Amino acid sequence: MVTNNRRAAAGRNISFLIVAVILGVLFSLQWNSPPPPTYTSHERATALTIQRLEAEQEELKATIGRLRAQLDAYQQQSTARTEMLEEITAQLAEQKLRAGLLPVQGPGVQIVLDDGIQRAMPSGPGDYLIHEHDIRDVVNLLWMAGAEAIAINQERVVATTSIYCVGSTVMVNDTRLSPPYVIQAIGPPDTQSEVLRNPSYLRDLKDRAARYGVQFKIVKVGNLQLPAYTGGFAIRYAQPGQ
Questions:
Q1: CB-CB contact of 185 with 84 (8 Å)
Q2: What strands, in cross-sheet order, belong to the sheet with 169-172?
Q3: pLDDT tens digits for 35-81?
Q4: DSSP letter for each residue of 90-131
Q5: Which of 57, 155, 207, 238 has its CA 20 to 30 A from that of 38?
Q6: Which whole number is the average pLDDT over 111-128?
């Protein structure tokens, strides 16, 4: 009986000892663990400022993104406008070239027409003279032979050019010209030369050249330089259609 009581008391002592050890360990851990952080008012204000700045930074990034997108759109529109302007400028330059408003250069032929020295009794006083219709015939033949630009004594021939005679004076673009008449035509030199020399064309001019010494010379030129047309474009009768 006594032995059993001793054993029970020993068991209780051991239990108390274990509980005491556990409590000691827990107390030691609590004592050594760092205290929870505490913030001063200054630190809290700093943290709020950081949060506000971070939010502003995100907003600025979004704004920059929108502005970049707008800039890209504007640049694309500007590029499209620039391309359109370049196309219009090119078309305008081409139309100016066709209208004779730009100086041009290139290969072609040069024709010299001049009054002749009387070798035989002419049938009329004008047989040994160069007339406006001689110049018109040569110009029309050159156009037919592929000429792209023509000038007469440095007067550019355009769609509204008039070639007529006042007395014994030839007028081109209302400018008085005197012989010799130098007609320059940019275009295929061989074709133009062949057409001009063809006996089927310019028969009267070639006949007077043979009989009365009227000068009719054709020369191929590697590079002709023709001036731009400087006159006006007076339209007297034509009106826009409806």
A1: no
A2: 163-166, 169-172, 175-177
A3: 555 657 767 777 777 887 788 788 878 887 888 788 888 888 888 88
A4: HHHHHHHHHHT-S-EEEEEEEEEEEPPPP-S--SSTTTTS--
A5: 57
A6: 77
Residue 224 has pLDDT above 90, yes or no: yes
Domain boundaries, the chain: 1-31, 40-99, 104-226
Q: Is the bond into 37 cis (omega within 30 degrees of 0)?
A: no
Kindly report the number of other CB atoms within 10 A of residue 137's CB atom. 16
Q: What is the mean pLDDT of residues 85-112?
A: 88
Residues 6+ apart with CB under 8 A from 56: none
Q: What is the CATH number of domain 104-226?
A: 3.30.70.1880
What single letter denotes the amino acid at residue 77? Q
